């Protein structure tokens, strides 16, 4: 895990290197990282990670950050939108049918080998219940689809249903009927919020993993739609596009500057104990890879603890993105190659089967909608000796996180907010 080297505009955390004037206003400082916490694992010292469901959330979220990095590296010039939890859920569910060697492969990818939990799957049921509670505004579902005429053992189906609330689907062999059935399932799970897929069903399916998710956020403090207007979004230093930008001249947010990553970090709260963290590079042409490589559950947890509440001039693009595509090659790159070659799923069936396809469908949006017209009374921003602006008007990364468990719900790389 990378040690947090988060520097605030007001000085380092805990007052290292900062200066205060006689009125108590905090002034900007130039600071070095606090070496005392470098290299220390958050999980060794933070009671948050002692809770089994939080520990599990950290593990599957770290899988999610790995998946995001691989997916982003495959599409360096395109937007990336993922809800890794739905994919992790499908993999975790599949591990119920794996013998020890194959189970260990899946568990290592999901970071379960770092968890001393005798009942991962019942804890996963608790995690799913927590993050899909109605107030979270997240819909997430996963499914395992098997080749036609496969005889599946009831000893696999029962725990699958018990812990993950899903049942396997066996293909009919008719591509049109199978695509229609899967589309109908997605529509039922997502309440019609995720578009139907128009892509053809693969012809060589042995095992297909399907993860679907949708999120439409509600800000704790809504934006005034009268202040939304077309403004420039800088694709790079030479190209700009005009997009609808929401604005709030007196936004209350949590803020910090990471000098190692050369980016400004801001966190905005959403209803249901969910928050979104933005990573905004200092320059529009800055490579996002360094930020991406730093993302772990522990790093994000540290950020969540150490950002400071401030008032700022905020602009943020309205966003409505979707993804419908394969993650097969991404999983092959993630220590899971053996699942596609000669795995042992004899707890599922007596016939040799293997993972052949992984599909992901996701929808994500935010607009001006929110719970209230004013910030929560308990939020007291620090006094600034200089104006603070936070304009998401160039490429950025966002992380949608469940505050209660620490689970990564969605992650995106937005190079162009007009769409994927």
Automatic annotation (TrEMBL):
<dbReference type="Pfam" id="PF00079">
    <property type="entry name" value="Serpin"/>
</dbReference>
<feature type="signal peptide">
    <location>
        <begin position="1"/>
        <end position="19"/>
    </location>
</feature>
<dbReference type="InterPro" id="IPR000215">
    <property type="entry name" value="Serpin_fam"/>
</dbReference>
<comment type="similarity">
    <text>Belongs to the serpin family.</text>
</comment>
<dbReference type="InterPro" id="IPR036186">
    <property type="entry name" value="Serpin_sf"/>
</dbReference>
<keyword id="KW-0732">Signal</keyword>
<dbReference type="InterPro" id="IPR042178">
    <property type="entry name" value="Serpin_sf_1"/>
</dbReference>
<dbReference type="InterPro" id="IPR033832">
    <property type="entry name" value="PEDF_serpin_dom"/>
</dbReference>
<dbReference type="InterPro" id="IPR023795">
    <property type="entry name" value="Serpin_CS"/>
</dbReference>
<dbReference type="InterPro" id="IPR042185">
    <property type="entry name" value="Serpin_sf_2"/>
</dbReference>
<feature type="domain" description="Serpin">
    <location>
        <begin position="65"/>
        <end position="417"/>
    </location>
</feature>
<dbReference type="InterPro" id="IPR023796">
    <property type="entry name" value="Serpin_dom"/>
</dbReference>
<protein>
    <submittedName>
        <fullName>Pigment epithelium-derived factor</fullName>
    </submittedName>
</protein>
